[in-house]
Write a structure and sequence with these properties.
single chain, 146 residues, mainly beta, Immunoglobulin-like, 5-stranded antiparallel β-sheet, 9 strands, DUF4426 domain-containing protein
Length: 146
């Protein structure tokens, strides 16, 4: 299993063991795109994975992971998209997000980092475009410093 797939599976398993149902439904159908999304603390990453993808592993750093699948094709293959947007805390401080595309085999992931403080809720406002259609995606995540 490749490293990003291992990260996704491990993260969902860990969250499932913690009893969190908030992560189970992190998929939205946006036109021809099935968009899977999550935001986690970078401390969930192993040092090796963080280093491989140039991700700062810190108690104050989160990782946004987006994958987009084409729901019009058999098997729902990964789809290349452009993702733009920002993250805002609840007092309105905006943080720009820079997504990096990661391809591993047939999988495509878009990763961005975001800084946060303890018990800070971050609202992610994104636009996902495949060149034919664009859709907004908004979700929030409360982060904790361990």
């Amino acid at each position: 299993m490749n490293t990003i797939k291992r990260l996704i599976v491990t993260t969902f398993l860990m969250l499932g063991m913690l009893g969190s149902t908030a992560y189970a439904d992190n998929m939205k159908k946006l036109g021809t795109m099935n968009v899977h999304y999550m935001a986690i603390s970078a401390t969930f990453l192993t040092p090796e994975i963080a280093k491989a993808y140039n991700i700062e592993r810190s108690r104050y750093n989160g990782l946004v992971n987006i994958s987009v699948l084409d729901n019009t094709k058999t098997g729902n293959p990964a789809k290349t998209v452009t993702i733009t947007g920002n993250a805002k805390n609840l007092v309105g401080q905006s943080k720009p997000l820079e997504f990096v595309e990661v391809k591993e085999g047939s999988a495509i992931y878009y990763l961005a980092q975001v800084s946060y403080h303890n018990e800070e809720t971050i609202v992610f406002n994104l636009t996902i475009s495949d060149g034919k259609e664009s859709h907004p995606l908004e979700f929030s995540q409360k982060f904790y410093v361990d």
